[in-house]
Design brief:
Elements: H1 2-11, E1 32-37, H2 45-60, E2 64-69, H3 77-86, E3 91-92, H4 96-99, H5 118-126, H6 128-135, E4 142-152, E5 154-157, E6 172-175, H7 179-187, E7 191-194, H8 200-205, E8 211-214, H9 216-221, E9 230-232, E10 238-246, H10 247-250, H11 255-290, E11 292-294, H12 298-319, H13 321-336
Helix pairs in contact: 2-11, 5-13, 7-12, 12-13
The chain binds (2R,3S,4S,5S)-2,3,4,5-tetrahydroxyhexanoic acid.
Protein backbone atom coordinates (compact mmCIF):
# COMPACT_ATOMS: atom_id res chain seq x y z
CA UNK A 1 0.00 0.00 0.00
CA UNK A 2 2.85 2.33 0.82
CA UNK A 3 4.42 1.71 -2.59
CA UNK A 4 1.14 2.24 -4.39
CA UNK A 5 0.69 5.50 -2.57
CA UNK A 6 4.18 6.63 -3.31
CA UNK A 7 3.68 5.92 -7.02
CA UNK A 8 0.32 7.60 -6.86
CA UNK A 9 1.87 10.67 -5.32
CA UNK A 10 4.46 10.80 -8.11
CA UNK A 11 2.02 10.31 -10.96
CA UNK A 12 0.79 13.87 -10.72
CA UNK A 13 -2.89 13.07 -11.16
CA UNK A 14 -4.43 10.76 -13.68
CA UNK A 15 -8.19 10.94 -14.16
CA UNK A 16 -9.71 7.48 -14.06
CA UNK A 17 -12.28 6.53 -16.65
CA UNK A 18 -15.76 7.95 -16.36
CA UNK A 19 -14.98 10.38 -13.60
CA UNK A 20 -13.23 13.28 -15.33
CA UNK A 21 -14.61 15.79 -12.89
CA UNK A 22 -13.04 13.98 -9.96
CA UNK A 23 -9.54 14.48 -8.71
CA UNK A 24 -7.46 11.32 -8.70
CA UNK A 25 -3.85 10.51 -8.07
CA UNK A 26 -4.39 6.77 -8.07
CA UNK A 27 -2.65 4.76 -10.76
CA UNK A 28 -3.47 1.35 -9.36
CA UNK A 29 -7.15 1.88 -10.16
CA UNK A 30 -7.96 0.83 -6.63
CA UNK A 31 -9.01 3.39 -4.07
CA UNK A 32 -7.07 3.61 -0.85
CA UNK A 33 -9.25 2.57 2.05
CA UNK A 34 -9.50 5.04 4.92
CA UNK A 35 -10.99 3.59 8.09
CA UNK A 36 -12.89 5.91 10.42
CA UNK A 37 -13.58 4.74 13.97
CA UNK A 38 -16.01 6.42 16.36
CA UNK A 39 -17.17 5.36 19.82
CA UNK A 40 -20.88 6.17 19.63
CA UNK A 41 -23.43 4.15 17.68
CA UNK A 42 -24.84 4.59 14.19
CA UNK A 43 -27.90 6.47 15.48
CA UNK A 44 -25.78 9.32 16.79
CA UNK A 45 -25.28 12.69 15.03
CA UNK A 46 -21.56 11.94 15.00
CA UNK A 47 -22.31 9.00 12.71
CA UNK A 48 -24.41 11.29 10.49
CA UNK A 49 -21.30 13.45 10.34
CA UNK A 50 -19.00 10.63 9.23
CA UNK A 51 -21.54 9.54 6.63
CA UNK A 52 -21.47 13.10 5.31
CA UNK A 53 -17.66 13.05 5.33
CA UNK A 54 -17.67 9.83 3.31
CA UNK A 55 -20.16 11.25 0.80
CA UNK A 56 -18.17 14.48 0.36
CA UNK A 57 -14.81 12.77 -0.12
CA UNK A 58 -16.07 10.06 -2.44
CA UNK A 59 -17.95 12.59 -4.60
CA UNK A 60 -14.74 14.54 -5.14
CA UNK A 61 -12.20 11.80 -5.75
CA UNK A 62 -11.90 8.13 -6.63
CA UNK A 63 -8.69 7.91 -4.66
CA UNK A 64 -10.36 6.92 -1.39
CA UNK A 65 -12.98 4.60 -0.08
CA UNK A 66 -14.11 5.64 3.39
CA UNK A 67 -15.02 2.77 5.72
CA UNK A 68 -17.07 3.63 8.79
CA UNK A 69 -16.88 1.81 12.13
CA UNK A 70 -19.12 2.86 15.01
CA UNK A 71 -19.83 1.82 18.63
CA UNK A 72 -16.12 1.44 19.40
CA UNK A 73 -16.09 -1.79 17.31
CA UNK A 74 -12.47 -1.12 16.38
CA UNK A 75 -11.38 0.72 19.51
CA UNK A 76 -12.43 3.04 22.30
CA UNK A 77 -11.37 6.71 22.13
CA UNK A 78 -8.01 6.19 23.75
CA UNK A 79 -6.93 3.08 21.86
CA UNK A 80 -8.14 4.61 18.60
CA UNK A 81 -5.77 7.55 19.16
CA UNK A 82 -2.94 5.08 19.77
CA UNK A 83 -3.79 3.21 16.57
CA UNK A 84 -3.58 6.48 14.64
CA UNK A 85 -0.15 7.09 16.11
CA UNK A 86 0.97 3.67 14.89
CA UNK A 87 -0.62 4.17 11.47
CA UNK A 88 -2.92 1.16 11.92
CA UNK A 89 -6.07 3.31 11.80
CA UNK A 90 -6.59 6.37 9.60
CA UNK A 91 -9.22 8.54 11.27
CA UNK A 92 -10.95 8.88 14.63
CA UNK A 93 -13.11 11.64 16.11
CA UNK A 94 -12.88 11.34 19.89
CA UNK A 95 -13.80 13.70 22.68
CA UNK A 96 -10.90 15.94 23.57
CA UNK A 97 -10.95 14.62 27.16
CA UNK A 98 -9.12 11.30 26.56
CA UNK A 99 -6.69 13.20 24.31
CA UNK A 100 -5.46 14.94 27.46
CA UNK A 101 -3.53 11.73 28.20
CA UNK A 102 -1.44 12.57 25.11
CA UNK A 103 -1.49 16.39 25.02
CA UNK A 104 -2.18 17.89 28.45
CA UNK A 105 -3.13 21.29 27.02
CA UNK A 106 -6.49 19.90 25.85
CA UNK A 107 -7.47 19.95 29.52
CA UNK A 108 -8.71 23.52 29.01
CA UNK A 109 -11.89 22.07 27.55
CA UNK A 110 -12.45 19.95 30.66
CA UNK A 111 -12.55 22.92 33.02
CA UNK A 112 -16.14 22.86 34.25
CA UNK A 113 -18.62 25.66 33.55
CA UNK A 114 -16.24 27.66 31.37
CA UNK A 115 -17.97 27.58 27.96
CA UNK A 116 -21.42 29.11 28.57
CA UNK A 117 -23.26 28.26 25.36
CA UNK A 118 -22.94 26.88 21.83
CA UNK A 119 -22.42 30.26 20.22
CA UNK A 120 -19.34 30.83 22.35
CA UNK A 121 -18.15 27.26 21.67
CA UNK A 122 -18.38 27.85 17.90
CA UNK A 123 -16.56 31.17 17.92
CA UNK A 124 -13.89 29.88 20.26
CA UNK A 125 -13.21 26.73 18.26
CA UNK A 126 -13.52 28.33 14.84
CA UNK A 127 -11.29 31.24 15.83
CA UNK A 128 -7.61 31.72 16.67
CA UNK A 129 -7.78 29.73 19.90
CA UNK A 130 -9.33 26.71 18.21
CA UNK A 131 -6.72 26.79 15.42
CA UNK A 132 -3.93 26.92 17.96
CA UNK A 133 -5.34 23.86 19.75
CA UNK A 134 -5.65 21.89 16.49
CA UNK A 135 -1.93 22.46 15.87
CA UNK A 136 -1.02 21.05 19.26
CA UNK A 137 -1.43 17.40 18.28
CA UNK A 138 1.42 17.42 15.79
CA UNK A 139 4.16 16.21 18.14
CA UNK A 140 1.98 13.14 18.78
CA UNK A 141 2.14 11.91 15.18
CA UNK A 142 -1.42 13.13 14.64
CA UNK A 143 -3.05 15.73 12.41
CA UNK A 144 -6.19 17.51 13.65
CA UNK A 145 -8.44 18.66 10.82
CA UNK A 146 -11.62 20.02 12.37
CA UNK A 147 -13.82 20.56 15.38
CA UNK A 148 -17.01 18.56 15.65
CA UNK A 149 -19.43 18.55 18.53
CA UNK A 150 -20.11 16.15 21.35
CA UNK A 151 -21.79 18.89 23.36
CA UNK A 152 -22.90 19.98 26.81
CA UNK A 153 -22.82 17.15 29.30
CA UNK A 154 -25.65 16.21 31.64
CA UNK A 155 -25.85 13.88 34.61
CA UNK A 156 -27.93 10.71 34.79
CA UNK A 157 -28.17 8.26 37.69
CA UNK A 158 -30.22 5.39 38.97
CA UNK A 159 -30.52 6.46 42.62
CA UNK A 160 -32.32 9.82 42.98
CA UNK A 161 -33.31 13.01 41.16
CA UNK A 162 -30.49 15.57 41.19
CA UNK A 163 -31.63 19.17 41.62
CA UNK A 164 -28.81 20.44 43.83
CA UNK A 165 -25.21 19.64 44.81
CA UNK A 166 -26.28 17.75 47.93
CA UNK A 167 -28.15 15.24 45.73
CA UNK A 168 -24.85 14.22 44.11
CA UNK A 169 -23.44 13.12 47.45
CA UNK A 170 -21.94 9.64 47.36
CA UNK A 171 -23.13 8.80 43.84
CA UNK A 172 -20.79 6.48 41.98
CA UNK A 173 -20.30 8.39 38.74
CA UNK A 174 -18.42 7.08 35.73
CA UNK A 175 -16.26 9.78 34.13
CA UNK A 176 -14.10 9.83 31.05
CA UNK A 177 -10.45 8.94 31.59
CA UNK A 178 -9.49 12.43 32.67
CA UNK A 179 -8.20 13.80 36.00
CA UNK A 180 -10.07 17.09 35.77
CA UNK A 181 -13.43 15.36 35.43
CA UNK A 182 -12.55 13.10 38.36
CA UNK A 183 -11.64 16.06 40.55
CA UNK A 184 -14.74 18.01 39.55
CA UNK A 185 -17.03 15.17 40.62
CA UNK A 186 -15.09 14.68 43.83
CA UNK A 187 -15.52 18.39 44.59
CA UNK A 188 -19.27 17.90 44.23
CA UNK A 189 -19.23 15.02 46.71
CA UNK A 190 -19.57 12.17 44.22
CA UNK A 191 -17.52 9.01 44.14
CA UNK A 192 -16.21 9.09 40.55
CA UNK A 193 -14.48 6.33 38.62
CA UNK A 194 -12.86 6.62 35.17
CA UNK A 195 -13.83 4.14 32.48
CA UNK A 196 -13.82 3.78 28.69
CA UNK A 197 -17.16 4.61 27.09
CA UNK A 198 -17.39 1.11 25.62
CA UNK A 199 -17.68 -0.38 29.13
CA UNK A 200 -20.20 2.09 30.45
CA UNK A 201 -23.54 0.50 29.59
CA UNK A 202 -22.63 -2.81 31.26
CA UNK A 203 -21.24 -0.97 34.28
CA UNK A 204 -24.57 0.81 34.76
CA UNK A 205 -26.52 -2.36 34.14
CA UNK A 206 -24.52 -4.28 36.72
CA UNK A 207 -24.60 -1.42 39.20
CA UNK A 208 -20.82 -0.97 39.24
CA UNK A 209 -21.64 2.71 38.81
CA UNK A 210 -24.82 4.61 39.74
CA UNK A 211 -24.56 7.17 37.00
CA UNK A 212 -22.69 8.91 34.24
CA UNK A 213 -22.68 12.17 32.34
CA UNK A 214 -22.97 12.75 28.60
CA UNK A 215 -24.82 15.01 26.18
CA UNK A 216 -28.55 14.31 25.65
CA UNK A 217 -28.11 12.65 22.21
CA UNK A 218 -25.71 10.06 23.65
CA UNK A 219 -27.92 9.43 26.70
CA UNK A 220 -31.00 8.92 24.57
CA UNK A 221 -29.53 7.12 21.55
CA UNK A 222 -27.41 4.76 23.65
CA UNK A 223 -30.62 3.67 25.44
CA UNK A 224 -29.39 4.66 28.88
CA UNK A 225 -33.03 4.98 29.97
CA UNK A 226 -32.98 1.17 30.20
CA UNK A 227 -30.47 1.33 33.05
CA UNK A 228 -30.89 4.85 34.50
CA UNK A 229 -33.92 6.49 36.10
CA UNK A 230 -32.99 10.16 36.50
CA UNK A 231 -31.58 12.88 34.27
CA UNK A 232 -30.78 16.54 35.11
CA UNK A 233 -29.64 19.42 32.93
CA UNK A 234 -26.38 19.94 34.80
CA UNK A 235 -24.73 21.30 31.63
CA UNK A 236 -21.47 21.22 33.54
CA UNK A 237 -19.01 21.11 30.68
CA UNK A 238 -18.86 21.31 26.87
CA UNK A 239 -16.93 18.53 25.14
CA UNK A 240 -15.73 19.10 21.58
CA UNK A 241 -15.11 16.21 19.23
CA UNK A 242 -11.81 16.55 17.37
CA UNK A 243 -11.28 15.11 13.87
CA UNK A 244 -7.93 13.30 13.97
CA UNK A 245 -5.93 11.77 11.13
CA UNK A 246 -2.88 9.51 11.43
CA UNK A 247 0.12 11.67 10.52
CA UNK A 248 1.98 8.61 9.20
CA UNK A 249 -0.78 8.13 6.63
CA UNK A 250 -1.39 11.85 6.06
CA UNK A 251 2.23 12.59 5.14
CA UNK A 252 2.04 10.11 2.25
CA UNK A 253 -0.89 11.88 0.61
CA UNK A 254 -0.64 14.51 -2.12
CA UNK A 255 -1.47 18.10 -1.27
CA UNK A 256 -4.56 17.87 -3.42
CA UNK A 257 -5.76 14.80 -1.51
CA UNK A 258 -5.06 16.50 1.80
CA UNK A 259 -7.13 19.50 0.74
CA UNK A 260 -10.10 17.34 -0.22
CA UNK A 261 -9.95 15.51 3.11
CA UNK A 262 -9.51 18.55 5.29
CA UNK A 263 -12.27 20.51 3.53
CA UNK A 264 -14.61 17.54 3.86
CA UNK A 265 -13.75 17.20 7.58
CA UNK A 266 -14.67 20.84 8.17
CA UNK A 267 -17.86 20.75 6.09
CA UNK A 268 -19.04 17.48 7.64
CA UNK A 269 -18.24 19.01 11.04
CA UNK A 270 -20.58 21.92 10.36
CA UNK A 271 -23.28 19.44 9.43
CA UNK A 272 -22.57 17.36 12.55
CA UNK A 273 -22.84 20.43 14.79
CA UNK A 274 -26.15 21.47 13.31
CA UNK A 275 -27.58 17.96 13.53
CA UNK A 276 -26.24 17.50 17.04
CA UNK A 277 -28.21 20.52 18.23
CA UNK A 278 -31.42 19.43 16.57
CA UNK A 279 -31.02 15.93 17.98
CA UNK A 280 -30.17 17.28 21.47
CA UNK A 281 -33.56 19.04 21.62
CA UNK A 282 -35.41 15.99 20.31
CA UNK A 283 -33.52 13.68 22.65
CA UNK A 284 -34.37 15.76 25.70
CA UNK A 285 -38.06 15.61 24.81
CA UNK A 286 -37.85 11.82 24.48
CA UNK A 287 -35.89 11.47 27.71
CA UNK A 288 -38.57 13.40 29.58
CA UNK A 289 -40.90 10.53 28.68
CA UNK A 290 -38.56 7.64 29.45
CA UNK A 291 -36.79 9.01 32.57
CA UNK A 292 -37.55 11.42 35.42
CA UNK A 293 -36.21 14.82 34.36
CA UNK A 294 -35.03 17.40 36.90
CA UNK A 295 -34.31 20.98 35.99
CA UNK A 296 -31.30 22.52 37.77
CA UNK A 297 -32.16 26.17 38.50
CA UNK A 298 -29.82 29.01 37.45
CA UNK A 299 -29.11 29.74 41.14
CA UNK A 300 -28.15 26.13 41.73
CA UNK A 301 -25.96 26.16 38.62
CA UNK A 302 -24.05 29.02 40.27
CA UNK A 303 -23.55 26.88 43.38
CA UNK A 304 -22.20 24.02 41.26
CA UNK A 305 -19.89 26.44 39.50
CA UNK A 306 -18.57 27.80 42.78
CA UNK A 307 -18.00 24.32 44.18
CA UNK A 308 -15.79 23.27 41.27
CA UNK A 309 -13.84 26.53 40.97
CA UNK A 310 -10.94 25.12 43.08
CA UNK A 311 -10.58 22.36 40.45
CA UNK A 312 -9.80 24.98 37.81
CA UNK A 313 -7.20 26.57 40.09
CA UNK A 314 -5.69 23.19 40.92
CA UNK A 315 -5.26 22.13 37.28
CA UNK A 316 -4.28 25.46 35.71
CA UNK A 317 -0.53 24.89 36.16
CA UNK A 318 -0.67 21.33 34.87
CA UNK A 319 -2.46 22.45 31.71
CA UNK A 320 -0.35 25.58 31.36
CA UNK A 321 -1.36 28.70 33.31
CA UNK A 322 -0.85 30.97 30.30
CA UNK A 323 -2.97 28.82 28.04
CA UNK A 324 -5.75 28.64 30.62
CA UNK A 325 -5.72 32.46 30.83
CA UNK A 326 -5.81 32.71 27.06
CA UNK A 327 -8.75 30.29 26.98
CA UNK A 328 -10.72 32.09 29.69
CA UNK A 329 -10.00 35.51 28.18
CA UNK A 330 -11.06 34.37 24.72
CA UNK A 331 -14.34 33.08 26.16
CA UNK A 332 -14.93 36.30 28.05
CA UNK A 333 -14.26 38.37 24.97
CA UNK A 334 -16.62 36.30 22.80
CA UNK A 335 -19.33 36.12 25.44
CA UNK A 336 -19.17 39.87 26.02
CA UNK A 337 -19.33 40.83 22.35
C1 LIG B 1 -17.61 9.61 26.83
C2 LIG B 1 -17.66 10.50 25.60
C3 LIG B 1 -17.94 9.56 24.44
C4 LIG B 1 -17.27 9.97 23.17
C5 LIG B 1 -17.29 8.85 22.11
C6 LIG B 1 -17.29 7.47 22.63
O1 LIG B 1 -18.47 9.75 27.68
O2 LIG B 1 -18.60 11.51 25.71
O3 LIG B 1 -19.30 9.44 24.24
O4 LIG B 1 -15.99 10.42 23.38
O5 LIG B 1 -16.25 9.01 21.22
O6 LIG B 1 -16.73 8.77 26.89
Amino acid sequence: MVTALFLAACSGGNASEGSEEKVTASTSGKPQILRVSIGVNDQHPEYEGVEKFKELVESKTDDFEIELYHSGQLADDRSAIEMLQLGSLDITIPSTSPLVNFVKEFGVFDLPFTIPNEKVADELLDGKFGDKMLDMVEGQNLVALAWWENGFRNLTNDIRPVAKIEDVDGLKIRTMENEIHLDAWKALGANPTPMAFTELFTAMQQGTVDGQENPFPTIELSQYAEVQKHVSNTNHVYTPFIFLFSKTIWDKLTEEQQTILSEAAVEAGEFNRQRNREVADESLEKLKKSMSYTEVTPEEHKRFQKAVKPVIDKHADGIGAELVDEYLNAIEEIAGS
